Amino acid sequence: MSTIHAASAAPAAVATPDTGPVGGGNTVAVVLSNFVSSNTVVGARLQTGTGACAAYGTASASNLAATATKFDASTVNVVIPSGVVLGTTYRICIYGLASGTLLSTSTAIAQDDYTVVADVPVLSPTTGPAGGGNIITATGTAPYLTGTTTPAVLFSTATCPATYATPDATKILATTTRTDSVASITVPAGAVAPNTYYVCVYKGNTVGSSALIGGSSTTYTPGAPEVTLSGTTGPNAGGNTLTTTAAAFGDLSATALGVNFSTTACDTTYEDTSAAAAALAGPATRAGTTVTFTVPSGVLAPAEYNVCLYNGTTDETSALLAVGKGKYSVTLPDVTTSPNVGATATAKTITLTSASPILSGVSGPGVTFSVAACPSTYTATGSNFAGTTPKRITDTIGSVVVPTSVVLGSGATTAYNVCLYNGTAADSILLANAGTYTVAAQFTVDPNPIDLDGGPAQGGTLITVTGTGFPTGADAITASLGGAPLKNIKRTGSTTFTGVTTAHAPGMVNLSVTTAAGTIIRSNAFEYSYGITVQPNTAPSNTTRDIYVTGAGFLDLDFAEAGEPSANSEAHVYLVDGVYDATDTTPTEKDNPPVAECEAALVLSDTALLCSLNLEDKLIPATGLQIGGGGTPVPDGVYTVAVVNTGLAAAAAASASVTISASILTSGSTFTVSDY
Question: What per-residue confidence (pLDDT) applies to 582?
């Protein structure tokens, strides 16, 4: 409600509202009970000054003509003219006549004061990115930009000056475009965090005289800029130093800044009051545009942190200055556990090994087993089970006994994280990324587990393995003989499973059985024999025929032809009349010597070779080691093929260390010499 002024006998009226924007165009209701009941046509003037209304008079800068309309006997609506001047107070004068030659003698019947004020445009948005460049709008409640061709806009850290002022560090000039009601403003690059700004719109850019026509009631806040940190990873519990550089730091008066490490978005003000925040807070020092700070001890794995820089260390007051680009995380070395599987509820010693000297200076490490992620500090309660007698062996190796509380859950296996700490106190810190240890149901393998003593080297033998607790499910059991895996493994009950042997070099081998609970080995459980097969297995006498021999262990043999230098000590493929006998009864004669040689043996793999069977030249019976000079062909008949590791006779070897062995022949190794 404005002050009411009376003049002559004219009654006083109330103008609502009694303020309005630059540019006019808004409507003011002038109200007084029954004061225009006898007037059909009314006129209005806005006159400068605080005196009583003068005569209707001629319109001028101090006596502005306004459009007036009688609404009812008590109300006249006045449209404020565009010529009103910011900051000027006008007397609204209502007249009984508004036309013709009687204008100069019209009598004022009501008056009230009306003041032109700067508009309060609405800013949208009120925040934006660091560095500016984005566009915001200042929308007026009236056409406050009418008649203003080139408005000027300042971003001011204080309330808007009444007239345009020279831009400086606290008043930053922005560029703008306009309609009558909306200024579209490009946020200047100089508007930076942690400042907040009033947005001030002026009629022009004449210092000291261009009037304020729009001033924001809310402030605009630039976002904190992202700055590049010298590192985004570091050791557990901090202590390392980071630096960052930004031009904005040079504009700050404070040389002591503040830093928070936060697992959530950076707060707008510095935090140092709560216990949690205190551990993640610290000072930072500035030298020119470079800021240096130490990572606080509360920065622990496995959390990731936002690095928040502030323009001081006053709790809840120092404003956010910058945010580190990207997350900061703790770098932990990896550890491997060996073995990494075991039976449920079974104490078992395992080692923890790292490529880094994680146990350097640690006399008594702490180890827990957890189905959840490793806590950042030592915790041995709830589902975190303390390992038994953890030890430091070297700087890179530790050991621990798996506690019997590490048990199988609801599934076939349960995996535990193995968590290594620098002690067992509550504040002991995590030293490494978790190793793993998986438990499953217990099983056993009998001392004499296989139903057969042995089988041929080329595999294919079906065996049954006995024990207890064998698990169900595809691939739940794997097994091997001397490293050669069993195939087609089938669980036939909790105490047995079957499998088919694969090729292996001849000899006694160990059985290895593995489930999710680990591996059990039984020594000397199976013997691979020297069995072979040949293709083709027939040829005419007095010919030479290439044959394909399959078996195992061929890569360990050095083949040569009979009669070549040192051939006696090398491997051979012989045709034998009956069963080859590697022994002899005299120093120069075998009991059953070979009758022919499969020459030029070419080893294709450990389980296959090619050779050329010479049926044209029968070997000399006296020794079986020399090619017959007379070219006597091998007679028709059924023979066997033998692969021998040496052509020496035992007595002639003159050494007990020489072991002469030959294939233990199978039916598949017979060879028939005959026309066909």
Answer: 64
Count how many residues are written for the chain: 676
Question: Does residue 667 contact residue 573 with C-beta atoms inside 8 Å?
Answer: no
Give the CA distances from residue 668 to residues 535, 548, 672, in Å, rounded to whole numbers and listed in that order: 9, 12, 12
* Two tokens, residue 191: 């508007």
Residue numbers of the domain that contains 586: 533-673
CATH number at residue 41: 2.60.40.10
Classify the phi-psi angles of 194: left when phi > 0, otherwise alpha if psi is within -120 to 50, otherwise beta: alpha
What tokens does 580 get?
């080859």
User: What torsion do the CA atoms of 484, 485, 487, 493 make, to the nearest 10 degrees?
Assistant: 130
- Measured CA to CA in angstroms, residue 557 lies from 157, 288, 643 at distances of 92, 77, 10
Per-10-residue mean pLDDT for the chain, 676 residues long?
A: 40 86 86 84 87 84 92 93 86 78 60 89 90 92 83 95 92 92 93 90 91 91 90 89 79 71 90 66 84 89 89 86 91 94 95 94 95 93 94 96 95 94 93 95 96 89 96 92 96 95 90 94 92 91 94 85 62 86 58 84 92 89 54 91 76 52 66 88
DSSP characters for 327-374?
-EEE-----EEES-EEETT--EEEEEE-SS-TTTT-SS-EEEEESSPP
Residue 369: both structure tokens together: 């087993």
- Choosing from 433, 467, 501, the residue where a domain stops is 433
Q: Which of 22, 24, 30 is nearest to 2 (CA)?
A: 30
Buried/exposed code over 559-596 (b: 16+ C-beta within 10 A; e: otherwise):
bbbbeeeebbebbbbbbbbeebebebeeeeebebbbbb
Residue with the two structure tokens 């004449």:
206
Residue 617 placed within a domain? yes
| Tally: H helices and E strands in the chain | 2, 52
Among all chains, which residue has been given the structure tokens 């001011």? 156
Domain shared by 112 and 133, yes or no: no
Determine phi and psi for 159, rounding to 5 degrees: -60, 155
Report which of 558, 563, 630 is spatially closest to residue 597, judged by C-alpha positions: 563
- Are residue 509 and residue 609 in the same domain, yes or no? no
Q: Which of 152, 154, 228, 225 is nearest to 192 (CA)?
A: 225
Domain termination site, one of 478, 505, 529? 529
DSSP H or E stretch at residue 286: strand 281-287
Per-residue b or e along 446-484, where b marks 16 or more CB atoms closer than 10 Å to that residue's CB:
eeebbeeebbbbbbebebebbbeebbeeeebbebbbbeb
- Answer for the pair 537, 638: CB distance below 8 angstroms, yes or no: no
178 bridge partner residues: 183
Are 353 and 418 contained in the same domain?
A: yes
Cα(12)–Cα(5) distance, rounded to whole angstroms? 6
Number of domains in the chain: 6
The CA distance from 172 to 191, in Å, is 7
Contact present, 261 and 335 (Cβ < 8 Å): no
Q: Which neighbouring-strand residues pair with 515?
A: 518
User: What's the pLDDT score for residue 223?
Assistant: 87
Same domain, 113 and 79: yes
Whether 439 maps to a domain, the answer reads no
Proportion of the chain in helix, strand, coil states, percent, rounded to 5 = 5, 45, 50
pLDDT of amino acid 654: 46
What letter would DSSP give residue 373? Answer: P
Query: Is residue 644 in some structural domain?
Result: yes
User: Does residue 5 lie within any of the structural domains?
Assistant: no
Q: Give the per-residue pLDDT at 372.
A: 94
- Say how far apart CA 619 and CA 563 lie, in whole Å: 10
pLDDT at 97: 76
Question: Number of C-alpha atoms within 13 angstroms, CB side, residue 393?
Answer: 12
